[in-house]
Amino acid sequence: MATTEAGEDLVKDQVDAVVDFWSQENPSLDLLVRGLAIRLRRVAHHLERSLREQLGTSDIEMWEAEVLLALRRGAEHCRSAGELLKDIQVTSGAISNRVARLEERGWVRRDVDPADRRHVLVSLTPEGLARADALLASKAQAELAVLGRLDREAQERLNNDLRTLLLALEGPAQPGDESLKLKRAELAP
Fold first, then answer.
1. Residue 96 has pLDDT above 70, yes or no
2. 5/56 Cα distance (integer angstroms)
């Protein structure tokens, strides 16, 4: 049985069985890190599965939800293609394809940045904004279905620990670029 730092017994989960195997098969592995990595992937899988169930009949793909919600967070529901690239962490070609497909569906529009004509700004259409808001509600339900199983104290502790890890991996958040906070009227053709 697994134990806490204080020596208390913990109920084993399925990951403990995998870690126990590796402790016998390859004891040189850092089993604490191995267990943590497996648990993070499994929780992410549960979150994604819950979201897919929530989205079930909405005729929308996960990548579409990701782009729409990234745009929903932008000032005036608008972001540069470069910001989307950094936020979603895919290639520039993938962002271009995703934006083009969302544009075909009438959910986004692309405009040349009037402040720098080399850049493209992507913004939600009214239909895209309505879709993003509906997605946000579905996503919140899916997240609550998985993470709501923890009490608030455990959620805060896990959130703080994961923030510490992401700060080590990605660094701190950068202040927003004020030049991208354009009014829709400035983007009108």
1. yes
2. 42
- Identify the DSSP state of 177: -
For helices 62-72 and 31-55, angle between their N-to-C axes, nearest 10 degrees: 90
Predicted TM-score (pTM) of this structure: 0.70
CB 69 within 8 A of CB 135: yes
Q: What is the CA radius of gyration of the chain?
A: 21
Distance of alpha carbon 40 from alpha carbon 169, whole angstroms: 15
**Architecture per CATH, 62-155:** Orthogonal Bundle (1.10)
Domain-wise residue ranges, the chain: 1-57, 62-155
CB 64 within 8 A of CB 134: no
Q: Please give the structure tokens belonging to residue 58.
A: 């909405």
Alpha-carbon gap, residue 76 to 183, rounded angstroms: 7
